[in-house]
Design a protein that fits this description.
- The chain is of the alpha+beta class and 423 residues long.
- Strands 1, 2, 3, 4, 5, 6, 7 and 12 form an 8-stranded mixed beta sheet that branches. Strands 9-10-8-11 form a 4-stranded antiparallel beta sheet.
- The protein is globular and about 70 Å long.
Length: 423
Amino acid sequence: MYIEDLKKAISDGEFDEQFKMLTCLEDITKEKERYLDLLDKALNKFGNVDAHLITAPGRTEVGGNHTDHQLGRVLAASVNMDIACVVCKCDDVCEYYADDFEVKPVRIDDLAIREDEKSTSEGLIRGTLYRFKELGFKIGGFKAYTHSTVLKGSGISSSAAFEVLLGNILSHLYNDGSVDPITIAKVGQFAENNYFMKASGLMDQMASSIGGFVTIDFYDKENPKVEKIDFDFAHSDLALCIIDTRGDHADLADEYSLMPIEMKKVAKALGQDVLSRVKKEDILANIRILREKLSDRAILRALHFENETERVLDEVAALKSHDLESFKKLIIESGYSSYMYLQNVYTPKDITKQELSIALCVSEELLKGKGAYRVHGGGLAGTIQAFVPKESLEEYKKTMESIFGEGSCFVFSIRPVGGYKII
């Protein structure tokens, strides 16, 4: 459909039901305005060409805090913040446009890894093209004009959304939409690991690509077990909040890296490479011996993993049975374990700054007996996650923003689909 026709179709309400599904909202006025503005920009840039509308969401970690790097289990979900794009075919080059950053064109006949593209969008585009071709899929150029509502630096994973969007563009433009979501996620991880040159697990890409609640068991690293959970969060009485405590992530890279390092030391002491190969009983039975070789914190972190990876199974069971009370209790248990045993709620480098602790403490006061709360993502600084009854949402948001500043509390719902072509 040509861009001018797409504008008319949106104005006439042809995509209203899709917009409601993607935003988890009944009032889609702003979303329609967003797409109309995006189409106007694409029209000015590309002319009135035959184009498609494709979108990919951010994600949130729900359960399984620091379990993926030990090949354990996670529970994650896509959220109703996304990258929306107007895209059309182009012969031999990929052009990606966004209002807030610039991406250089990438030719489809030049797919070698470039050191100077480390940590760049160009690297991710080149890596996605390379992997699609290597896997036997068709590739080609494209022109995309995009707009993102995915928060950066808040654990919602804008990079995974970008990777999943690229995979869907190539799937729908050149492969009749035949590339499945799991393959698209794996392609994104490949591009991030090899071309973006950042070590990463597969949770972010899987959650963004598949959509809804997704549980993943990474025990078989090459073939993780992925299951989508059928739960209609948008019509529950809960809202999902991410609170940006605006703590400083600077100089914390070594602290983050110590979590998997210390866990793997415990696994190695028990004859394994990662903790998913170790039984909790073996850790408990050998604590005295382990303490002679390793730090107490390493042992506590290992025990966090063992309990957390099992807790994911209970969280999934609670969602499947629509038992939100049990689900909320498990989320709180997960948060306590991260606080006490994983110890990623504040950094020992500066114990005077504990923004996440304050956010969790206030959340407990506001939500006790009603909602749930836990550290979100890597921890040490940054964000917490809260499941807030909708009747309490206004008070909760107002209180958190009175502490951490206006705009620090973001309200989400769980989007039921991942990477998606509207038309």
